[in-house]
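Notes from hallway chat w/ T.B., transcribed later so I don't forget. T.B. wanted the structure written out for a chain they're using in a teaching module, and asked if we could keep both sequence and C-alpha cells in one place. Agreed to drop them here.
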Amino acid sequence: MEKSGEHQHPPSPPQYPYVPSAAESVNTVTIDHDFNQKAGHNETYGEASADTVNVEAAIEEYHEMKKELSRISRHSVADFDKAGEEGRVSEEAFDLDQFLQGLSYEDKQAGKKPKHLGLVFKNLEVEGVGADAHTIPTVITGLLSLLQPWKYFGFGTGGSTKTILHPVSGYVKEGEMLLVLGRPGAGCTTLLRVLANMRASYTKVDGDVSYGGIDPVTFSKHYRGQVVYMEEEDIHYPTLTTKETLEFALRTKTPGNRLPDETKRVFSKKLIYMLGNMLGLTKKMDTMVGNASVRGLSGGERKRLSIAEAMTTQSSINIWDCATRGLDAASALDYVRSLRVMTDVLHKTTVSTLYQASNSIFALYDKVMLLDNGYCIYFGPVKEARPYFEELGFYCPPRKSTPDFLTGICNPLEREVKPGYNTPETPLDMQQRYLESTIYKRMMVELDDYAQKITNEKPADLFKEAVAQEHSRYAPKSHPYTVSFYQQVNALTIRQYQLLSKSYEALISRYGTVLILGFVIGSCFYKSPLTGAGAISRAGAVCFTVVCNSFVSHSELVNFMTGRPILEKHKHFAMYRPSAYYLSQVVVDVPLTVAQVLIYQLSSYFLMGLYSDAGRFFAFFIIMVWITFAMIGFFRFFGIITNSFVIANQASCLAFIVFFLYLGYFITYDAMHPWFFWLHWLDPLAYGFKALLINEMHGQVYSCEGPGNSIPFGTGYEDWSHKICTMKGGNPGENFVLGDDYLREALGFEPTWLWAPNFVMLIAIFLFFTALNMLLVEYVQVGGSGSLTKLYLPGKAPKIRTDEEERERLERQQKITEKMDTISTGTTFSWHHVNYSVPFKGGPLQLLNDVSGIVKPGHLTALMGSSGAGKTTLLDVLARRKTIGKVEGRIYLNNEALMKDFERITGYCEQMDIHQPAVTVREGMRFSAYLRQDPKVPQSEKDAYVEQIINLLEMEDIADAQIGEIENGFGISIEERKRLTIAMELVAKPQLIFLDEPTSGLDAQSSYNIVRFLRKLADAGWPVLCTIHQPSAILFEHFDHLLLLVRGGRTAYYGEIGHGAKTMIDYFESNGGPKCAPEANPAEYILEVVGAGTAAAVNNTSTQNWADVWMSSKEAKALEDELETIHNTANMNPSRKALTYAAPFWTQLYLVHKRLSLVYWRSSGYNLGRFITVVSISLFLGFTFWKLTLTSLDMQSRLFLLFATMILGYMMIILAQPKFMQERVFFRSEYASRFYGWMPFTISTILVEIPYILFLCALYMFGIYWTAGFVNTSEACGYFYIMLVFFIFWAVSIGFVLGGLTENPYIAAILDPLVITTVIIFAGMAQTESSLPRFWSAWMYWLDPFHYVMEGFAVNELKNLPVVCNNGDLFKFAPPPNQTCGEYMADFFANGGSGYITNSNSTTQCEYCTYTTAEEYYSGTFGWDAANKWRNFGIIAAFTGFNLLVFSVLVYYKRKARR
C-alpha cells in the first residue's frame, strides 16, 4: 500500500490516471493535471474558472462519497437485517467501486478478480432488408399472404438487401470511451446494436467481434447482461416511483460478494443514494415515473432514470444510443461527465452516440468514429479528428463545435472547403482517403497489439472468475443472471404488488364487476327448487358461474401484454429470467383469485340456493379457484405466442367460444358430433363445470311433482304408476329423480369423478399452461427485435441515389427557405402573470409561478431551462392544452382575448410524437394541410407546399413510408417522427408557432435546417416560441429572444439575446454571474449560471437566486410596463368572426372518413383477423350442428346454435373496444390542434364499420346457414341476414361505448364480462321469462337486446317446422289397464297439453313426443310469438341507435385528454 500523498502514475495501458481502490489510501489523491490537459479533458464551457468543475474533481467527489457511504454502511448495519439474511453469500471484502457498475479494480490483497473487458471488432459488415422488401399491408395482401404460408418461414420473400455497415474495424480498451458520430442513416445505431450483441434484426453480420477474447455466441449465452445497450426511448412502468424502479433493478443485480455484515437493503440504499446525487434524482425518488398519459417525471428526469437503471446492472461494457436526447445542455454534460468518471474509476468500456454534442462533451471521450452512409471515414483519437479533416482541406468556422463540424463533413452542402484543396466528395472516397492515412495505420497497429495482448493475457479468464464470484449462492455460475431464480421471482413479485397498489381503480373495477356478476347470476337463478325445472336452472347457474369468471380472466390478456416492452428490455439486461417474470405473475394471481372467487361466491352461492353444506361450499370455492387459475394461464398463452394484442385477442376469443360450446351444458356429451367430441376432453371449462355440478347434484333428490315436471300431469293423473318424470334419469312410476342418475342420463357425467379426474385435470391444465408459458416466454422472442422495418406503398420504395442526384436534392432543399413568403399581418402574443397549479395530495402544487413574456412578429424566442423547470408545462398552458389544474393570468393575441379559433391558428409541435400509424408521411401531411389551411387555397397549391416541407426536412425517402408504431417494429424512426411532428404543423401555415424540443434527437445538420427554417419563418413575420435543450453556439445565434426558467417554474430572464449573445451575457455578468469565456457556448453558459444540470449543487455554479434577481431587475420592470399597457388596451370581447375549424363540416367529414377508411383497409390484423375468426366460428358451428333434423333434441339444438351466434357478438365487443380506444388517441391529438371536430370523427368511426359488418355477416351466414340445415326460404334467409347485421352493429357500437367510458384498457376489458354476461343471462335462454324472479322479469328481460334478437332468430327459423321425435326423444310410460294410450292421454291434450302420442292404440307402453310443432315448443317454453318478428327487428335497430347516441355523447365529453 502506498503512503498518503504519493502520486499515482498513469498505468499502461489505461490512458487516464489510476485511482486507488478502497484498500488503498484515499486521504490524498493527486491528479496528473498536465496529462489531462493534453487529453483535452478540461475544456471550458462558460465557467468562471476552467478548473472549477472537471473530471478530476468529479473523481475526488466520487471517492469522498464512497468513503462516507462506506462509513455509513458500517455504522448502520445493525439498523437493518442481520448478516446472512436476504441471500448474502460471502464475507469477502467489499469495494464500493465494483458495486456501482461492477467494474473497478478489486483489492488485490482480498484476492478479487477484475471484471474488465475491452472490445475489438474487425471487418464488421452488416446487411439488412432493402427498402423494397416490405410493402404496407392491406386486407387483400393479408389474405394473399394466408395463401402463401411458406413466406412466414422466410422462403420466397423476395426483396433486396442493403449494406448498412461496410467493413469497419476498431477497438475500445477498458477504461476508454468511444463516441460514434454520423448523420441519421449513417449506421451508428446498427454498429452499436451489433456491438451489444443484438443481431436478430439483420440479414447478415460478417466480421469478428471480440469481448475481451470471448466470442459473441458464448457471450450471449453466459454473459448477456455484461454488455448493456440503452436505446433512445425510455421504457418504464409509469405508476412505479423512481425509487421503486431502482430498488427493483438492484434486487436483481445485487452481487453475492458484499461487505461483511452488509445486507442487501443497506447495499441498495447506498447505491440509490449515490445514483440519486450523481444524476439529480434525489428529490424525485417518491415521484411516479409517468408517461404520456400519467403525470410524473419530466422527459429529462425520465431519461436520467433510464441511465441510473442501466448503471445498476454492473455491466462491463455500456453502449448508449443517443442517451442525451431530451436533456438540457447542462444535464447532458453532467451525464457524460458521470460516464467519464464511471469509465475512469471503474475501468468500464463505454461506447455511445450523441447528437449535437458540445465541445465540452466531445473532449471527455478518448476516441471518435465517424460514419457516413455505412462507411467509416475516421476512427482515432478525439484530439486528432479535427486536425485530420482540416489537413484534408475542410474548414471549421469559428464557434462551430467539433462534433458538428465532423458530422457536417458528411453533408456536401454543409461542409466548407479551404481554397486550393481537392477534398474527397463521396463517403467511399473519404473512406479510401482515411485508409491511406497514418492515423488509420497507427490505429490498426494498436488494434493488433491490443488483440495480441488479449490473447496473451487472457483477461476473459479473470472476467469469468469475477462474474462467477458476483453470482449469489444459489445462482448457477453458467447463467448470466446475478441472483438465483427464487430471488428473481421474489423481486418480481414485490414489483407486481407495487404495481397493483397503484392501480386501485383497476382493482375496484375488477372486484366491483365480480360482485355485481355474483349478484346478477345469483338473483337470476334465485333459490332454484329441487324439481325437474330446478335441476336445469342449477346446471345453468353453475355453467354461467364458470363462464363468467372465465370472462373476467380474459382481462389478464391486457395486463400481460402491457408489460411486454419492459420485459424485453430487462431480458437484454439479464436482470431476470422471463420465466421468473411469468411465475411471479402466477404468485400474485393467488391472493387476487382467492379474493375474486370469495367475493363472487359469497354474493351468489346462497342466492342461487345451492347445497347448504360446509364441505360442498368449500369444495365449490376450491374448484372455482383452480378453474380461474387454469383460464388465466390459458389466456396468457395467447399473449405470449404473439406480440400483437389484436391477434392474441382474436385467437383467444375463438378458442374460448369453442370451450364455451363444448363444456357439456349447451351440447351434452352424447349429442356432440363425432368430429369434435374430443374437444370436450381438452376443455378446462368442461372439467370445472363437471366438478362443480357433481359437487352440487351428487346425492340430491329432485321431486317430479307439479305441472311440467311429469308426463302426463293435471287432474286425473295422480297415479305415479302411469306417469314419468320429464327430468332425465327418472324411472317410470317414481316421483323423484336422483341427482346422480340425472348427471349420468342427461349430461353423461360420472358422479364419482368429482376429484379425480375432474379436479385433478384442472390442476394438471393449470400446471401445463404454467410450464408451457414459462418455456415459451423464456425461449420465444416475445417482442420486436428492436430495429424498425419501413413499409412503403407498392413501387414507392426509394432507390439508391447517385452522388449527382444527392447533390441536386440538397441544392433543392437549400433553395426552399429562400422562397419564404412574407405574411401580411404579424401576430403579437403575450402572457402576463401566468400561474399554473395542479391538485396534489399535500395541497395544490405550483408548477408555474408568475411567468410573463411576449412574442412579436419576427421574434424567434428560445424557451430554456433545466429539465423539470416547467418549459413543456408553460407551452401546454399557452397553447391551451391543459385540462387539469388551475390556470391564472392574462393571455392575449394581437391585443385581444383569446377566441375559439386560437388552437386552429396556432401550431404546436408537442414533445410526444403522436401520429396515425396507418398512413404514410405524405398522406399525413396532406391531411393536415387540407384541413387546416385556408379552404380557399387550391388543393394543388397545398400539395406543392407539402412537397416543399418534405424537401426542407429531408423526408423524400420516407414520404411514401407508413408512419407505423415503434413498439411493433414497423415504421419510421424516432428521429424521423420528430421531423414529421414539425412538418405536420408547418404545412398548416399557422399564425403563431409553439415548438417543444423540435431539435431533440436530431443530428446537428437536421437541427440546423429546422432552426434556420424557423428563423426564416420569423423573418417573414411569424412569431415563434420554441423550447430548446442543447443548442450549439451556431444554433443559438438564430434566436433573438430568450425566456429562461429555473426550477419551480419561475423566470430567471426574459429579453433580447443580442448580437453574439452580448445583451443576455451582460445581464448575468452585471448581476453577479461569472464571466463568460469568449469561446464559450452562451446557451451552456446561462444554464450553468442559473444552476441547471444534475451537478449544480456539487459545482456550486449558482450562487444566488436568479428568479429573485430577475424580479427586482429593470428589465423585468420594462416587461411589466409593456404587458400592463397591452392589458389596459386589450379588447376583452373581440367581435371579429372566429372559426373553430378552417374546413367546413362536410369537408371535415369527407376527409376524416376517407382517412379512416384507409386506416381500416390497412388494418389487416384487425379486419382480416375478424374475417378469419368469423369464418372459423361459423364453419365450426355449422359442422358441430351439421344438418339438423326435425327431432325434439334438434329443435333444441337449433336454438342453441342461434344462441351461439350471441357469442359472436361477444367477440365483436371485445375487438371493437380496443380499436376505438386506439383511434381516440390520434383523434385527441388532432382535435387539440382543431384539425376537425368531434362530430366528423364520431360519424366516420360509425360509417367505416358498416361495409366490414355487412361482409362479416355474409361470411358468417355462408359458413353456418346451410351447413346446419336452416330453413332455406328467401324470407327466412333475408331476415336472418339483416337481423344478424343489426345485431353485430349493436355489438360493435356497445364495444365503442365501453371503450369510451374509460381511458384504462384494463378497466375497459373488465367491463366487458359485466355487460356480456348480463345480456346473455336475461335473454330468455339461460332462464325463461317465467323462471326469472319477478324483479328481473318485470324490466330487465324487456330491456335486454339479446332477448329480441333470440326471439327474432327463433321464430324466423322454427315457425313452420314440425317436430318428429326419434326413439331417444320419446317419454315412455304404461297406461292404466284396459285403456289405450290415446284414451289415457285424451284429457291431457284436451286441457291444452302439448305434443302427441306416436302409438295411440297401444295398451302396454305409451310413447309421448313433447311437441307437435316447433311453434308449440318456443311459445310454450319461452313465451315467444312469431307476430313479434319484425317488431324485434325494429327494437334491435332502436337499441343500436341508442348506443350510437351514447357513443357520440362520450366522444364529446372525452374529446380532450387529461393533461
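Follow-up for T.B.: The first strand starts at residue 119 and ends at 129. Might be a good example for the class.
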